[in-house]
Write a structure and sequence with these properties.
about 0% strand; about 70% helix; mainly alpha
């Protein structure tokens, strides 16, 4: 199969995200866009986990995420008419969790940290909530297990969340396919992609304006 760089995975994640938002805001009848969109967050979660492992300055990394999240939030709230906190807050909380888990190696300490992050995610209403924290945690473990073993855990996690707990709609099950994409990673970073910090709020502004123009006709 074709092997791809981290940059290519980020491009895929961004494209899938835009497809999902186009479906939600402009073309709700094109459900296939929403299905592709389900792959976006897990890919971003993997990129976050990789970034946490390899960044030379995790505090600067976290600041960029948090500042962009805060700047984007008013745009996100207006465009989606939602009180939820945008996905960058989810990623920032996940970054905090991964760094704390690394500093506190005992299992009981890690379970407390993960539990607290899940509680914060749900209480603050960040996008994807507890599911998002679980995805970030699993994506941080891709190098700890053989691919087939990790994929089994990944599928069990989604089955448990979607079928047993019914926390998300059934479409989220398509996110399982993202697990197969990340194992096509060729170990190379590729081009740097700091543009995403501008791209995320910018694409929301553009889609919001288009949606407003359509609704006001």
């Amino acid at each position: 199969m074709i092997k791809i760089s981290a940059f290519s995975i980020k491009i895929l994640a961004a494209v899938f995200m835009v497809m999902d938002h186009v479906c939600y805001l402009l073309m709700p009848e094109l459900v296939i866009l929403h299905l592709f969109g389900r792959l976006s967050f897990p890919l971003f979660a993997w990129l976050l986990a990789e970034g946490e492992k390899h960044t030379q300055n995790v505090h600067r990394y976290g600041r960029r995420l948090l500042i962009t999240a805060i700047i984007t939030q008013p745009i996100y709230s207006v465009v989606f008419q939602s009180l939820s906190l945008n996905i960058l807050f989810t990623l920032f909380l996940g970054l905090v969790m991964l760094r704390l888990v690394k500093h506190y190696p005992q299992l009981w300490q890690q379970l407390i940290i993960i539990g607290l992050c899940v509680a914060v995610a749900e209480s603050l209403g960040v996008e994807y909530g507890a599911y998002g924290i679980g995805v970030i945690l699993l994506m941080s473990l891709t190098d700890k297990f053989k691919p087939i073993i990790w994929l089994v855990y990944w599928c069990i996690f989604h089955f448990f969340i979607l079928v047993i707990l019914s926390m998300l709609n059934i479409f989220q099950g398509w996110a399982m396919l993202a697990g197969f994409i990340i194992f096509q990673f060729n170990g190379k970073q590729g081009s740097r992609a700091k543009w995403f910090y501008v791209f995320y709020p910018t694409h929301l502004i553009i889609l919001g304006i288009i949606n407003y123009l359509i609704q006001s006709r």
